[in-house]
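Researcher: Please generate the 3D structure of the following complex. Treat every line as part of one assembly.
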Amino acid sequence: MKLTVVGLGPGAGEDLTGRARRAIEEADLVVGYTAYIALIRDQFPDKEMRSTGMKKEVDRCRMAVEAAAGGKNVAVVCSGDSGVYGMAGLIYEVSREFPPIDIEVVPGITAACGGAAVLGAPLTHDFAVISLSDLLTPWEKIEKRLAAAAEADFVICLYNPRSHSRSDYLRRACDILLTHGKSPDTVCGFVQNIGREGERAVTCSLKALRDNEDVDMFTTVFIGNSQTELIGGRMVTPRGYLQREENGK
Amino acid sequence: MKLTVVGLGPGAGEDLTGRARRAIEEADLVVGYTAYIALIRDQFPDKEMRSTGMKKEVDRCRMAVEAAAGGKNVAVVCSGDSGVYGMAGLIYEVSREFPPIDIEVVPGITAACGGAAVLGAPLTHDFAVISLSDLLTPWEKIEKRLAAAAEADFVICLYNPRSHSRSDYLRRACDILLTHGKSPDTVCGFVQNIGREGERAVTCSLKALRDNEDVDMFTTVFIGNSQTELIGGRMVTPRGYLQREENGK
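Model: Done. Output below.
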């Protein structure tokens, strides 16, 4: 009768919220992508769990809504936040095909926030979050968003920056940013495997990011705004408090 | 010797992460804005806490870094995420004035994710986060970002949409969005007091949002993209999975 869409945070470990933990504990059935179920399997050993592979998002959500409509308390788990490129939207869309159920979305730490914390404080000013995956979005739309974000000097956070079939997308994205006003010296950073084994953070210039070959599908990328700087190796975007003080306001 | 910048999530309640809770428990001293200290006072009754008022951000961060440099384990608490318009950036900036200390940023659920979960799933596609406060940012820059985000069809999340001294800012922002390509019928929503007493969510059109008088400084505002729709009263931005299936791909 109830379906909860739960964000697990970056690694489903210490960054899991109390509400997310309770939602999983109270569920009769937990549904998720295979890799995310693997993250929580050991923490909830007695729980009934069902996983499906990549590109099976619609099937997975239908299975979950159907089970909830049939009387179960179901938790659908997502990495990071359940609402940021997560399953929350699709669950609502799919729910229209079934009798009404009660849906609750439980937020989690999304990779933008989790990765930013590893790098320092890159998101302390206005930012744009853009996925480079064109599986569901025309590349022209992605290009337009990259250009607009660069021209308005947003900090930019990129999800899905690269995959096997999209090996040159990050380079193409960087070229668009460079053409639309971002300096080649813009402070950038990326984090792999946020909150998981193998977590690794790198800072570099936009010019160097363009030619970097380490970024993979488990990486979140950050491009600073014109004020972003490195402080003791950390990527920091000033909010303006100190600058206001220096100006005597 | 150590300073942790901790995001409390929207209400410092069930959306607090395990890592944030541990950071506060392990701290010798907790420092924060008066209203945020009040949120956690009862949960950590024996903890030494120091609070300062609004616009005292620089003093507060200096006090915290100084205490850490003096040998204490200090936690600086922020509402939402510590890195999204939070104190993480300023802590790094201020730390340059003191002997080196170990700084860790602990992310929290930011209002964009917390509010989105209350409204449904508005952030399931590319989005821009913009603060309407011009205390630290020239209004011209904010205008430029609003225009760019509208033109590129981002979902937009607005922080600090209104204050006593900025009573017409949300209206001005909506006018910019309308001038730069957002339809008056764009699905919008706002949430007041996310995760706290008095939590209240409202959905409306962009046209209606422009003339809304309920939005206050404790409100987070969401403006959909051209695909955002209402499903059973919830604000949902499709990611495109179902549309792909319908197109037989």
